[in-house]
Each structure stands twice: as structure tokens, then as C-alpha cells.
Known about the structure:
Layout: E1 12-23, H1 38-47, E2 50-56, E3 60-66, E4 76-80, E5 86-89, E6 95-99, H2 104-110, E7 122-128, E8 138-143, E9 147-155, H3 162-173, E10 187-196, E11 201-216, H4 217-220, E12 228-229, E13 239-241, H5 245-249, E14 275-279, E15 285-289, E16 292-297, E17 302-305, E18 311-318, E19 329-333, E20 335-339, H6 341-345
Amino acid sequence: MGAKEPPKDPTRQAGYSLQAIVRTGEGPAPPKWPEVNASAIDAARRKGETRISVDLSPSRARFVLAGDFVLPQGTELRARSDRYGHLLLWPGEDSYRVAEPGTLRALLGERRLDVSPMSAAEVASPGEGARRLNLRTRRIEIVTRAAKATVEVATLPGAGEGGVLICRLLLDLTSAPPSTAACLTDEVPLHAELRWTTQGALTFDVASYARRTDLLVQDLAAPPATRTFAGGPVRGEPGDALVAPLELLAFRTGPLDLPAMQARDAQAPPPASGLVLVNQSDELRVVWIDGVAAAWVAPGARWALPSLVRGRYALQWRTFLGDTWDPPETAIAPGESVSGKEQERR
Length: 346
């Protein structure tokens, strides 16, 4: 008689783990001034690269965010093939929230769970895509009122509908209904480029993948047994730095002897050091300094970066998704930079 197969562990599941990089454009490149420390700036840019770790089984997917997202490090989204939408797990909380279909643009860009209007999607598959990670891909083109997307999918045996859940995440960002037929069973998106109909773009690139037989069922559970349902909005905050103070300090080799800024009538005096960031717009904005996402500031809020060395910096305010931005400027520290001045004049 043949040997019996060992019993399956009910706490573990087969599937895949992927590491993906997300890019939403770049701010102004570092200026070629003699005081600029290009190597420190490049190191900060690499460290802050926005990444998504994906674990998927044939019917579940877990997305963990890291890098320069405006959401906290370790924020999780979970999805299952028999339900539309996502579950949001906020770090440090013992609860979960429901992110209904159409909320991902507001969640990733504004830290809100507002539902965007959806529109019917036109889907076409013109043929083969580029070879990626030594795999052949099929190209899919998706057009909605909000965006045009090109997605390249590869067949990973045993992925089931786990890759379809990645496709649904991308569809949500284009404001397409989750029922849109795009990815097939066992197909996993390896590359996607989304171009907003306003301006800007987002790219999603899988940098590596691995077959797994040890995915923990509890890590893919949706909803998770260890958390309770929570209604209401996510926790609001005025802003946060995306680069550590010592890393910002290293952006310059030393201070410049610049004249101090003078406060105008009815204005607060300039800070003693660094930059004060003021967001007068009605959208959450990300501040790019020397081509690095340095901080985000909520609408109507202020945030300080006191560790910037006295000097001049290439600065730009953008939304996280890159669909709105202010013109680039040269900011002087100590000083202040304001987004939404045009709104104020209106």
C-alpha cells in the first residue's frame, strides 16, 4: 500500500506572495546647487518608495501598505472573491472598517472613505503584453470617465481568483464597477498604468513573486476574527512627515547665509528654523522637496518640518494620486510654503 499523505494543516493555505511598487509621479528634481547633498536625497527617495505587499489565495487577498503613502505604515486592505469592496485594518486599532466599492481613490489620496461615482468600463484585450518576471503577459485596456488603464496579467497556476482581487483594486482606482470582467481565473496583474483624465498617472509594478504553501488563514480572513466592526470615519490628523528629521537635515551639506524672511501685515512671524507648510486647499496635499515626498498636510492644516537646514529648496505641492498639483517653487528655510493661494484669492 502507498504511503498516506500527511494531513493538511487547516491553519495554512497555498497561494502567492507578491511585492509591488507604486509610483504616482515625481516632484521637481534636486537642484544642482553646490550645497545640495544628492546622495542623501537619493537615499531618502529609495527608502520612501511606496510599496504594497500582497498575499493571495484562490479566494482571498491581503494588501499591506508601506513607504510614502499618506496612510499609516502597515495599513491593510483585505478582500474576498465572493464580496465586493475591501476591509480596512488601521494599525494600532482592534477593529476594521468597510471600504465600499468606489472608495479607494479617496482612501489612498485623502484618508477618507467617501464613495466616488462609478461609470461603465470599456474593456479590450489587444493581445500580448511585455514579458515580465520571465512570464508572458496578456494586455488589457480599460477606459472609464475617470481614467484609462493598461494592465498586463500573467498566468500563475493555483492563483484562482486571488489575482482577480488585485484587478478589482485597480478597477476601483479607475472608478470602474467591481463586476467589470477584466482578469480571468489564475491571472495576476504584474504591471498596470493608470492615467487620470484630468492629469497625472499611477503605475503598479510587481517586482517579485513567490509560490507559498504556508499562508496563514487568519491573515487572509475577511473579516478577521480578532477584530470588531467599526463604523464612522478613520482617525483624522493634521499631517505627518514622510522623511525622518535626520534624513531631511542631510539634504544640504551646510546652511546658506540668506536674509531672514520678514512677516507681512497680519501674518505670523516666520519660524526660527525649517519650513512651516500651510494647506489652504480643500484636498489633502503631499509636499515634495527636492524630488522626495517629505510630508502630507490635511486640508486647512499646518505642519512643520523644523530640521531643514537654512537654505533654498525645490518644492511642489501635489495630491498623492498626482491628479492635481501647484506650480514648482523655490522655498526658503526658515520660512513658510502655502498651497491653495489661488483659492484664497477667489
